[in-house]
Amino acid sequence: MLYRTRHCISSNFSFHWIKNQLENICHRTTSVAMHPTADSDINTDVNMHNKRPIDDDSENKAKVQKTESEMVQKVKRKNHAMLLGYVGKDYYGMQRNPGMKTIEEDLITALLKADLITMKHFDNIRAINFQRAARTDKGVSAVRQIVSLKLPEKADKTVINEFLPEVIRVFGIKRVTKGFNSKNQCDARTYRYIIPSFAFAPEDQTLLKLGKEVNEDERIKQLSIIDGKPYTDYRLSSESLDKLNSILKLLEGSHNFHNFTSKVRPLDPRARRYIISFQCSETFVSNDIEFIVLEVKGQSFMLHQIRKMIAMVIAIVRNMISEETIEEAFKTMDKMDIPLAPSLGLCLCHVHYDHYSKRYGTDGLHETLDWKECEEEIEKFQKTYILRHIVDTEISEQTTLKWLAGLPFYSFSNKDVLPVDDDEKQETMHDDIQM
Question: Where's the Pseudouridine synthase I TruA alpha/beta domain (predicted)?
């Protein structure tokens, strides 16, 4: 009897306890349903494995926008080398310079429009490790310029070219090693200088007065006739060509070129440069004028160095100064009065990466940087734009003839106060190394 009584009490207690628990669960479930934004503690009591439903559309949109923004920021960028060519006309050189029209400014603008860089990168190109292999001067063109920078994978040159003027073309883009720097890892640079051959015709010594003011009109009239014929009929003889090459050879090797640049003192280590080769590589006739191509290869060049070297060579071939003037320019501690040859004919031809190509070009991950696959497109651009521009400008503006008219004004000797060329006035010397 006692057992039955205890069993009944126990049963009644269990029944009421279970009933109360069920009522509590129902109450909590109803509360959650009525208040979907209840805090996470209540939501966890109901079902720890179910996520809280989101009914707010604005919150959904905000999360989507945040995700898209994160995706833009997380675009994988790899180091690339970009090969491009350009005509230097109307540009203040290669390097970006606020307020000036430069090649880099147009290139970076095109990259922005092509969605390959962000506005943050546009404002600070160092953020994408942007570097140029050579800093070309105002008016100087390039057949094969190289820049290194970080771009998204599979960047398309066709898209970039759509946003570039026709005088600037991207020929190719290649993946390079993580630490690749187009300037520091360049073994050498080759420049070409194209100029009419009449620039090397000997001067009439009876009419020559170095370091004196000259009447430009009279000089042009004198220069317009060579050996009784129009100057355009002049052709460089084999003897004159041999003499030219022998003089160019005097500039080869390692020398102190402080007199062939500006703002670099004689004892400055930067003045010592190594010229690998310097020669007349070819001649050609266009519009009945003979042009010659001077080709110089060196490890690196200073600002205006090539144009000053060519000005001195022209003066020697024309018998205005002696060959010994070159040696004097290397050794003297004074600054010599040497002019700049016109920028029109100067062109960056090759940027060499022989060591890089040998070390990484056959590792199965990277390519050589010889760009042979781009040659047809490069040659077409060179003939259509660069060469055409040089020849047409030479004919229409008589660039070389007018420059020769003022050549006697320079003494090619030591001078305390030197005249400042217009190009030197406009150049900003961020870095005196042309490279």
Answer: 248-354
